[in-house]
Structures are given as structure tokens and as C-alpha cells.
Amino acid sequence: MPECSSCAAQVQPEWKFCIYCGEPTSADAARPAPLAAPRTNPIAILALILAAFGGAPALIFGHLAMRQIKENGERGMIMARIATALGYVWLVVWGILLYSLLTNVS
What we know:
Keywords: Membrane, Transmembrane, Transmembrane helix. The protein contains three helices and no strands.
């Protein structure tokens, strides 16, 4: 009867793992590979780029990205939140500029 390489306990040949320590008993019973990291949401990246260049549409894309990230489990939630916040800031800035241009005309 074979022995476990980790704890030296007697194991059955059909066992894939040692019931005492949990180590694989053969080379073909390796532990499962870790899952790949999820990708970063491309809409969050686009929203951040728009926010960096002063685009108020960044808040729309930021909200879309946050919804997709919640549904799909992708990365980029902080990026989407920053883009959304900057989108609101740019919306206020553009609103103030437009208001000042319209009030100076008359």
C-alpha cells in the first residue's frame, strides 16, 4: 500500500488526496490552477479618459461601467467612480462657463 509523501500515512491507490493531510497522492491529482484575474472594464477606461480631458459624458460612461462591473465582476470600479465624480465636476464647470458666456452677451 502506498504512503503519503507529506504525512507518511497509508493511502489507498485509488485515492487522489490523502484523507489525513489533504495532499495529492499522485502527480495527476494536482491542485486546481488559480483562476485568472478578471479583466478591467473597457468602458471604465474610456470614462476615465473622457474625464481627464474635460468631458462631461464621462459621468454617463462611468455609471454604465459601474453597472457592468457589478453584473460581471470585472475590475475597474474605482476607476469608474473617479470618472463619474470627475464627470459631475466637469458638468458643473461647463454649466458655469456656459452661464457666464450667456450672461455676458446681454
